[in-house]
Design brief:
Shape of chain A: globular
Structural class of chain B: mainly alpha
Helix content of chain A: 25-40%
Order of helices and strands of chain B: HHEHEHEHEHHHHHHHHH
Oligomer: heterodimer
Largest interface: A-B, 27 and 24 residues
Distance between the termini of chain B: 15 Å
Radius of gyration of chain A: 23 Å
Strand order of the largest sheet of chain B: 2-1-3-4
Strand content of chain A: 25-35%
Shape of chain B: elongated
Number of strands of chain A: 14
Largest sheet of chain A: 6 strands, mixed
Number of domains of chain B: 2
Distance between the termini of chain A: 38 Å
Strand content of chain B: 5-15%
Strand order of the largest sheet of chain A: 6-7-8-3-9-10
Number of strands of chain B: 4
Number of helices of chain A: 11
Structural class of chain A: alpha/beta
Chain lengths: 307, 371
């Protein structure tokens, strides 16, 4: 496929007896913001490490930025940018030292580097001195500089592994504005996250569980697919015990039940019994029809299958 | 695989920033050689002088006094008169004296009656590093005293003139300080390398390096180059202080000395790298570096304990230790002025060990980094 930035077919990664990634297939279009959602250990980071040329797959085919995975890691590394969840920048080095170090590793020409650096720092509206130590920057700014470092060599595909872990909500939303901008400039963004609000901003998301992709679509279509029933939010008018609610979970007309603090999300089947149950619940709760959040989708697909 | 100097240089430059901003590394690298040379040069004295000597003179004659005078004027002993043989024993027990001289009554009478005048010397055998030198002094003093008392040189059927080559005064500084070149390089190279590479594993930045097209060999060269420079600076410090402050001779070839230093340094940098690849944790790497790098360099290299007097097992064990061979090269360069041919075994052994350890470390490192 000519317009696929990333394409993967039956990709598996095994570590000894443990299968971290279990025969997954998907394709990411150029200029798309593609989200990977899943619990820790679901195989998100392992998949990204394969696609960045850091790990060889045990089986399957893949290509990144037009380069087949088996064509050599170096060709892939030259075309992709990577921001890992664990480490981003050297704390004891300045912004300039970090960026010029990356430029040196990427063998950027000094003049090209200076131009790229200035335009990227302008893009992230970095207004601090270039000789500021990374450790003196606030977490959000540091994250943005790390993003700048990963796109310094103008890669076609950028892999961001939980890029906003541990920064403030304001910094997160600023970071996502940058991600959307990059996508508009034609870059393909491949991002993993724990945050549902971030997942909503992806063009498409893949839900991962135990090394497999259990659902893949746009956020809107995922919600429609996963919740063919009407979803209601119940708000208790008087205090309720979780124990009293457990009956609902196994009720034949309840397709989905999940507590959210003192509220409950309940999907009722479109049956007579379901309608009766709704009326019965309305006597005890404030009942409101809502559209499902990605969190509901995530719980129903990723965690619900375990039940 | 294509090695690019520019990438190695970028890594070396980054590493240099780390070093310059890290007080611990910088202090260790620059302070350690100075500290060690001054400590070993000034504080540690293997030459035995001013030995406290408890003396009991039961004879109290001209002859006995002349013997005691000879001890006192030798410069090696501080004479401390005591009242009885038991008191002399007590002086040793109480650590007030290292040795005791007991001259019995009738000492002079025995001599004059044509017999042999006998006195007893008690030595503190619990500190055997002083016993040897003291015995040596006593032998000379005995001869001098005999001459002074008899007032003539007795004819000797055999006469052995002893001359110490290379270190005529048997100055222990001359012996120890060249060995510090080995100790300083060993500590700096193994410890700093093990720490710096383990740190990249520990904080996850190795992943960042690997996500770029950098090759393992470029990473090795770039990361180790600054520490190689620090090691050579340390070596230069040892050399300059030894020559200026302690006025050591340097009779050999500087080129050979530096060449030996570089071989040794390369071997130990590789050893540090190997340790960090095996441990991947700074704390464990540090402990292993101490064990594998420093302890052999201090204990089994002949630095303080002579290899010749080790049990056979350890004598053979030292042969696989790079420190032992560079110790030979350093000492022979300073004191003997040996040529390459004379130090051929040491250079050959060091060269072989160097190649082997680098090969193992590079292989292991590369294997670890491959996807």
């Amino acid at each position: 496929m000519k317009d696929s930035a990333v394409e993967v077919q039956n990709l598996s990664v095994r570590f000894g007896d443990f299968t971290a990634v279990d025969s997954i297939s998907f394709a990411v279009r150029r200029g798309e913001v593609f989200g990977f959602l899943g619990a820790n250990g679901a195989g998100k980071t392992t998949t990204i490490r394969v696609l960045c040329g850091l790990l060889r797959p045990s089986a399957g085919y893949g290509s990144v930025a037009g380069v087949a995975l088996d064509a050599g890691e170096m060709a892939i590394k030259a075309r992709v940018g990577y921001m890992s969840q664990k480490f981003t920048l050297y704390d004891d080095l300045t912004v300039e030292e970090n960026l010029s170090f990356i430029a040196g590793l990427r063998k950027l020409d000094p003049a090209v580097y200076a131009k790229r650096r200035d335009s990227i720092l302008a893009f992230i509206t970095f207004q601090r001195p270039l000789n500021a130590l990374i450790r003196d920057l606030p977490g959000g700014i540091k994250q943005q500089v790390a993003l700048a470092a990963s796109i310094l060599h103008d890669p076609e595909v950028v892999f961001l592994d939980e890029p906003t872990a541990g920064v403030t909500p304001a910094a997160r939303s600023r970071f996502w504005a940058l991600i959307r901008d990059l996508a508009r400039q034609g870059k393909t963004i491949f991002v993993t996250t724990h945050y549902m609000d971030e997942a909503e901003q992806c063009d498409r998301i893949a839900l991962m569980r135990a090394g497999q992709i259990v659902a893949l679509d746009t956020p809107a279509r995922l919600k429609a697919e996963v919740f063919p029933e009407q979803l209601f939010e119940l708000e208790a008018v008087s205090p309720v015990h979780y124990g009293d609610m457990d009956g609902l979970r196994d009720h034949p007309d309840v397709a989905f039940f999940e507590p959210y603090g003192m509220r409950f999300h309940v999907a009722l089947r479109k049956t007579v019994g379901g309608e009766n149950l709704r009326r019965e619940l309305a006597s005890r709760f404030r009942v409101q029809a809502i559209s499902p959040t990605l969190e509901d989708v995530f719980i129903r697909t990723v965690e619900g299958e375990r039940r | 695989m294509s090695f690019r100097w520019s990438r190695a240089a970028a890594i070396a430059q980054k590493e240099m920033y780390h070093v310059l901003r890290d007080r611990f590394t910088l202090t260790l690298a620059l302070g350690l050689p100075v500290f060690m040379v001054f400590t070993f040069g000034f504080a540690i004295e293997f030459n035995v002088k001013n030995v406290p000597l408890a003396v009991h003179d039961a004879d109290k004659t001209q002859t006995s006094r002349r013997v005691i005078d000879t001890f006192g004027s030798s410069g090696y002993f501080l004479v401390d008169p005591v009242v009885s043989p038991a008191a002399a024993q007590q002086a040793i027990d109480g650590d007030r004296s290292r040795a005791a001289l007991v001259i019995p009554g009738g000492f002079q009478k025995d001599l004059l009656s044509g017999g042999v005048a006998k006195a007893q010397l008690l030595l503190d055998g619990s500190d055997n590093s002083t016993v040897g030198p003291i015995l040596g002094y006593v032998a000379s003093i005995e001869a001098i005293a005999s001459r002074r008392i008899a007032d003539f040189d007795p004819p000797k059927p055999i006469e052995i003139h002893t001359r110490f080559l290379f270190n005529p005064e048997l100055n222990s500084r001359w012996f120890v300080i060249p060995g510090l070149a080995v100790a300083v390089l060993a500590i700096l190279a193994v410890l700093l390398t093990a720490l710096t590479v383990a740190r990249e594993w520990e904080n996850g930045s190795m992943e960042l390096l690997l996500s770029t097209p950098a090759e393992p060999l470029e990473i090795i060269v770039g990361k180790l180059a600054p520490y190689a420079v620090l090691g050579l600076v340390g070596l230069a410090f040892v050399y300059v202080i030894s020559r200026t402050v302690f006025a050591l001779p340097f009779r050999g070839s500087h080129v050979l000395f530096v060449l030996g230093g570089i071989l040794f340094l390369a071997t130990y940098l590789a050893l540090g790298l190997l340790i960090s690849v095996l441990t991947r944790r700074q704390q464990i790497a540090m402990q292993l570096a101490m064990m594998a790098g420093m302890i052999p360099a201090f204990l089994l290299s002949g630095f303080i304990f002579p290899i010749a007097s080790m049990p056979a097992f350890f004598r053979y064990l030292t042969m696989v230790l790079p420190a032992r061979w560079f110790m030979t090269i350093a000492r022979d360069s300073y004191l003997k002025g040996s040529t390459l041919v004379e130090m051929g075994t040491a250079f050959l052994a060091l060269g072989v060990l160097c190649v082997i350890i680098i090969a193992i470390a590079a292989r292991k490192f590369k294997k670890d980094l491959e996807p």
